[in-house]
Design goal:
Length: 219
Amino acid sequence: MAAHDGSFDGVERRGLMFVLSSPSGAGKTTLSRLLIERMSGLRMSVSATTRPMRPGEVDGRDYHFVDRARFEDMAKRNELLEWATVFDNRYGTPRAPVEAALSAGQDVLFDIDWQGTQQLREKARQDVVSVFILPPSAADLEKRLHTRAQDSDEVIRGRMSRASHEMSHWAEYDYIVINRNVDDAFAEVQSILKAERLKRERRTGLTTFVRELQRQLES
Ligand SMILES: Nc1nc2c(ncn2[C@@H]2O[C@H](COP(=O)(O)OP(=O)(O)O)[C@@H](O)[C@H]2O)c(=O)[nH]1
Ligand SMILES: Nc1ncnc2c1ncn2[C@@H]1O[C@H](COP(=O)(O)OP(=O)(O)O)[C@@H](O)[C@H]1O
């Protein structure tokens, strides 16, 4: 997955897979949108899902909304990089756009759960950077699920009762961000991405760059 990120400092590097996970309502979608808006060289991976569309969601932007038969077909044809069952629905990452983005020098942002993160890690440990977002308190989490006002009370109860189980996977992640305040949490997530882009082992063009510097110094 060699990549050149033209938006950066001109040194070639491999693209990375930047994963945000959290219990439902902790703020992944909010932080993902801000990252896509404000960071260049980053593309969102749009998942396929069998869950019903929420008010305000757009097919192809938020998710590819598909029926169960179509989803099973995609999985069987190996068109999904990973997939999992969450809240009785299937969710999966279409493989082709991720591979195209990485080979075009883009980083890819994923809003996926711990099961999907484990699968990506097994496939490409070196290229996966994972961040787990925690809410500041259970009361805040519940309030956010209600203020989002897109799910029924029953769905919200289901999401709250699964939050503790989802959170039990926090220690599998590279970074933990507590989303008290959106601006601070965004600044933290952005710093992680910026620092990870600078990691020596991703920067495949450094040897050439340093050799050229040395040549200039020695001539
Ligand atoms: N493994 C996997 N999980 C996904 C994928 N897309 C979304 N999810 C996760 O599915 C869960 C439910 O997502 P969603 O129904 O949009 O609810 P939300 O968490 O309230 O935004 C979240 O934990 C998402 O991160 C995917 O492609 N693969
Ligand atoms: N730091 C925050 N403070 C208050 N509300 C927040 C914060 N972060 C997100 N929200 C709100 O909480 C709700 C859930 O956030 P969302 O990003 O949809 O979570 P997720 O994608 O993890 O389910 C949304 O209405 C969002 O505007």
